Design the sequence.
């Protein structure tokens, strides 16, 4: 999306990333003279099978994930999220990871692999039901998901940008209720 806005293939874009990657993304945007506004932020959750030993807890502490297998999509996540947080919290030595290449595969692996989990932003309710999964809050939350609207400076006061921001805000408020 950053490249599409930079090249002019898109006037406005939306990007989502984790707070620990803020410097990376903001440096990319600055280097390409792209402006941005944060439009929403929310904590990540852990997705587990309804049969997982941690599923009945009200919330999960990060240390409780140590003995379990994390399933990740093999893009940005392993380097900047899982590994960094685990090193900071001295959990890295026994960390087990399964890396998949397609995001849809994550759901196919979580239910049948006993004790597995993945970090997520949100999962469609139909998928939660289909795969018999639940989202669990993690406390303390160590990461936020950030949604940015990005645009070239010339779009900064455009009516289209204002309309997109308004529609996004309206949609967010629907889900916050």
Sequence:
């Amino acid at each position: 999306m950053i490249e599409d806005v930079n090249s002019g293939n898109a006037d406005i874009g939306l990007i989502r990333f984790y707070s620990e990657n803020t410097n990376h993304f903001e440096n990319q945007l600055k280097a390409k003279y792209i402006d941005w506004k944060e439009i929403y932020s929310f904590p990540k959750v852990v997705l587990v099978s309804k049969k997982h030993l941690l599923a009945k807890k009200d919330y999960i502490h990060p240390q409780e994930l140590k003995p379990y297998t994390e399933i990740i999509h093999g893009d940005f996540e392993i380097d900047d999220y899982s590994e960094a947080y685990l090193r900071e919290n001295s959990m890295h030595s026994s960390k087990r990871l399964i890396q998949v290449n397609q995001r849809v595969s994550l759901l196919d692996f979580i239910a049948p692999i006993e004790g597995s989990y993945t970090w997520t932003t949100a999962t469609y309710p139909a998928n939660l039901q289909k795969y018999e999964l639940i989202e669990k809050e993690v406390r303390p939350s160590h990461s936020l998901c950030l949604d940015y609207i990005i645009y070239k400076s010339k779009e900064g006061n455009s009516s289209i940008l204002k309309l997109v921001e308004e529609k996004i805000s309206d949609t967010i408020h629907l889900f916050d209720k």
About this structure: Residues 159-176 form the longest helix (18 residues). The chain has a mean pLDDT of 84. Residues 3 and 9 are 8 Å apart (CA to CA). Helices lie at 2-7, 22-31, 77-88, 103-110, 125-131, 159-176.
